[in-house]
Specification:
The protein contains 11 helices and 8 strands. It has about 280 residues and is an alpha/beta fold. Strands 1, 2, 3, 4, 5, 6, 7 and 8 form an 8-stranded mixed β-sheet that branches. Helix 1 runs antiparallel to helix 3, helix 2 packs antiparallel against helix 7 and helix 6 packs across helix 7. The longest helix has 24 residues. The protein is globular. The chain starts with a strand and ends in an 18-residue tail after the last helix.
Length: about 280
């Protein structure tokens, strides 16, 4: 019996890309049996799990179009000085408030679709899959970028960003029983893009490149375990995972590219997109 999972990758502000992809996938009639998400992908997977229909994709798109950096990463001189003393850079209060606005006190098991959130155990680096409990805490843990946000305690474990252990949790979906996996990947910036600006953009861009390499490796490793289709990533892409000013443009581009990909039979293709490999134009 076929079991389809949507896998949502991490990628900071590039998570907006997944909102455009998701809109077109659902509009085309594709229906997942369960969802798995890490980091920014955890926000998308949990949001959609509560509203797994066309209207839900539109609300997710509306959320991303309205997000500003100060709602996610509202740092100040004081926070930078605090980080220099060994604490985290950003107080997560604003992100928690944003998540609570949409999830409230609901638990993951309250969702209309089963959803699994990937985080990382801080001491061991092991992947932790959260499938029950408060949605806000699960997503905060999965998005807790090390050094930027504080770790989050869930069931006695101190957890950090899911992208550290498994940014595109294809293996998790397969272990959970998926026979068909549709990957919503944020992609990564092309070789000749402008140089990152500032310490945080350098760090996030480096992480973005690292997880893109890992994704290719995972796709090769798990290809024989399930039918895996990767929704066409945006290319060229020259937007920092830290830049929240272009989310609307990313959504529009991703939706258009996904429509083309679907019309070309992308769901039946199991090839690894060339744009995920190092390349230039």
């Amino acid at each position: 019996m076929e079991k389809t999972a949507f896998v949502f990758a991490g990628g900071g502000s590039l998570g907006a890309i997944e909102a455009g992809m998701l809109r077109e996938l659902i509009a085309s009639g594709v229906r997942p049996d369960f969802l798995v998400g890490a980091s920014a992908g955890a926000i998308n997977s949990v949001f959609f799990a509560y509203q797994p229909h066309t209207a839900g994709t539109m609300r997710l798109e509306f959320l991303w179009r309205g997000i500003r950096r100060r709602q996610i990463l509202p740092w100040s001189i004081l926070s930078v000085l605090g980080a220099a003393r060994g604490t985290h850079l950003v107080n997560p209060a604003k992100l928690r408030s944003l998540l609570y606005e949409h999830f409230g006190n609901r638990t993951l098991e309250d969702a209309d679709l089963p959803v699994h959130v990937v985080a990382t155990e801080m001491k061991t680096g092991n992947e932790i899959v959260i499938s029950t409990g408060p949605a806000v805490d699960a997503v905060l843990a999965s998005t807790a970028i090390p050094g930027v946000f504080p770790p989050v305690s869930v069931d006695g474990n101190m957890l950090i960003d899911g992208g550290v252990a498994n940014n595109t949790p294809i293996s998790t979906a397969i272990r959970l029983g998926a026979t068909r996996v549709i990957v919503l990947a944020t992609g990564f910036t092309c070789a000749e893009r402008r140089q990152p600006k500032g310490a945080l953009e350098h760090a996030m861009s480096a992480l973005n490149l690292l997880v893109a390499r890992q994704l290719v490796s995972d796709l090769e490793r798990w290809a024989s375990h399930a039918a895996i289709a990767v929704v066409a990533p945006l290319c060229p892409l020259d937007v920092s995972p830290y830049d929240y000013s272009q989310c609307g443009l990313l959504i529009d581009r991703a939706a258009a590219e996904t429509r083309r990909w679907l019309e070309a039979g992308g769901l039946d293709s199991h090839d690894i997109p060339g744009s995920l490999r190092p390349h230039s134009h």
